[in-house]
Amino acid sequence: TAAKVGARLAGGLPEAKVVDEAMSDRAVQTLTTSFDARFGGFGGAPKFPQPMVHEYLLRRYARTGDAAALQMVETTLTRMATGGIYDQLAGGFARYSVDARWVVPHFEKMLYDNALLMRVYLHWWRATGSVLARRVVEETAGFLLTEMLTPQGCFAASLDADSEGAEGTFYVWTPEQVRAAGGDPDLLGVSAEGTFEHGSSVLQLPREPGHDWPGVRERMLRERERRQRPARDDKVVLAWNAWAISALAEAGALLDRPDWIDAAVRCRDALWANHLHEGRLYRVSRDGVRADALAVLEDHAALALAEFALTGVTGADPGAGLELVDGLGPAFLDEGRDSLATDVLATGPDVFDNATPSGWSLASDALLTASAMTARIDLRERAEQVLGQAAHLAGHPQFWGHGLSVLEALLDGPREIAVIAEPGSLLHRVALAATAPGAVVALSGPLLEGRTKVAGEDTAYVCRGFVCDAPTTDPEVLAAQVGSGSEGS
Questions:
Q1: Do residues 436 and 480 touch, judged by C-beta distance below 8 A?
Q2: Partners of residue 93 on adjacent β-strands
Q3: CA 141, 147, 151, 157: dihedral to nearest 10 degrees?
Q4: Which of 25, 65, 157, 478 has the fewest CB atoms within 10 Å, i.e. is most exposed?
Q5: How many CB atoms lie within 10 A of CB 76?
């Protein structure tokens, strides 16, 4: 369990190991042994979504061509998206499945799950062009913007599992209820026996629906809206919203949804307005009023990464993100801690990734991304050191998914892509479609200093480990340099 893995760090962080290819090989072998080839996921019931592990596997596939890594992703993400853990009507994922087949969820919906899952489904689509993956991204974005958006422009922490005094009441159906809305109970996995309680069933969509599905879905949604809705926890958590910003910005750029990019920018602005006070960031707000708890390492690093995502998508100045990264060492890493609160210091940092990425893994990610954006070798060296201090977790890959994703970026370079062009231009879209692990795209900032357009045309400069190719104005050449997937083809 995570607790047992974490207990190994009670004596403090170990010396940093040199991170290398063998760690990734060991991790993927371990994952293969616990993979459920029939239903996807790892191990048995209950099953939790593990977007960080699947991000790692997608990156490994992109770097090495490891077909088994891609198969684990595709099997799992397909089963999840067609099962009961996914809301087939409104989009969005529940917290976990109580069974091994992803049929019956614990119905609570968490912001962090949906932000992280939306991004990994986007990256699956980017790598393969999967129609299912794209639909899940679109529906999950719709869920976030319809059901989770707060008046301040950020996103609520969660939706409860219960309504009308019982779990799942809002979401389950009987065959009669489905037929009354014009739907096919068999198509949706709704039976007389039921898959849930009292003869009711959780909706599934195991095969592609017919052309009439959009109309049926709309009627069922209207019928469901007559029910008592689950309560919403309106807390705005800094890191969780940062992940939503990154997902919406990147998806908006790749899927041509400028409204999603606008939503990401509004949320970023609201976070800075409501969570920064007298030079210090705070972790939680509600109704625009911050709570007393200071932001932790996870929050600082996640917000920096959100700033970098917006730099790549909109051309926003990366200065705020770079300033956050420069502060990670003095505030957290030098003392080996997650929190600025003195009573937390003695416990040391959590370095394993569980339901969310650890602050430690996020810090290595932010440091590496900042290094690629600035060509600063000192930041890269610090990223390697921070990652290396948790490298023993390569033997426990389900608890180091985000760390392994950063490892893949280190092994690949990562690619540094400076684009001198307007946001949304063809060359820019090809750069954002890069499947190269951890590729960093910049439309502004230090990466563009001293670089100009070639013959007045949109131009991209691609570097890897600070060694640069000749600039190109050709989208096909750029796609070959950065491994662009479905959107870049």
A1: no
A2: 86
A3: -90
A4: 65
A5: 23
Distance of CA 5 to the CA centre of its chain: 23
Find out whether 275 and 324 touch, Cβ atoms under 8 Å.
no
**Measured distance CA(25)–CA(52) in Å, rounded:** 17
- 294 DSSP β-pair partners: 282
- Encoded amino acid at 406, one letter: V
7 falls in which pLDDT band (50, 70, 90)? very low
Distance of CA 193 to the CA centre of its chain: 36
Q: What are phi and psi of 416, to 5 degrees?
A: -110, 115
Question: Are residues 299 and 357 in contact, defined by beta-carbon separation less than 8 angstroms?
Answer: no
pLDDT per residue as tens digits for the range 190-229: 999 999 999 999 999 999 888 999 999 999 999 999 999 9
Instruction: Judge contact between 85 and 93, C-beta under 8 A.
Output: yes
Matching residue, tokens 């000749």 = 470
- Identify the band that residue 12 occupies on the pLDDT scale cut at 50, 70 and 90: low
Q: Is 163 helix (H, G, I), strand (E, B) or coil?
A: strand
* Coil, helix or strand at residue 399: helix
Between CA 428 and CA 438, with CA 434 as vertex, the angle to 5 degrees is 115
Distance of CA 287 to the CA centre of its chain: 25
- The tokens for 63 are 């770097």
pLDDT at 344: 56
Question: Taking phi first (over 0 means left), then psi (-120 to 50 degrees means alpha), and beta for anything else, what does residue 194 get?
Answer: left
Distance CA 366, CA 305 (A): 6
Peptide bond into 46 cis (omega under 30): yes
- Other beta carbons within 10 Å of 225: 11
For residue 405, the tally of other CB atoms under 10 A from its CB is: 28
The pLDDT value given to residue 132: 97
Quick one: pLDDT band at residue 486, thresholds 50, 70, 90?
Answer: very low
Residue among 251, 199, 306 at smallest CA distance from 91: 251
Mean pLDDT of the chain: 94
Token pair, residue 253, equals 């750029």
Which residue shows structure tokens 């099953």? Answer: 47
| pLDDT one-digit tens code per residue, 326-358 | 999 999 999 888 988 766 555 668 899 999 999
| Rounded mean pLDDT, 166-184 | 96
d(CA 92, CA 110): 9
Q: Cα(52)–Cα(65) distance, rounded to whole angstroms?
A: 19
What would the mean pLDDT of 361-380 be, rounded to a whole number? 97
CA-angle at 371, arms to 293 and 482, nearest 5°: 115
What b/e readout covers 194-213, taking b as 16+ CB neighbours within 10 angstroms? bbbeeebbbbbbeeeeeeeb
Q: Which amino acid is at 323?
A: E
Q: Do residues 182 and 219 make contact, with C-beta atoms less than 8 angstroms apart?
A: yes
Would you mind telling me the total number of residues written for the chain in this entry?
A: 489
Between CA 250 and CA 257 the distance in angstroms is: 10
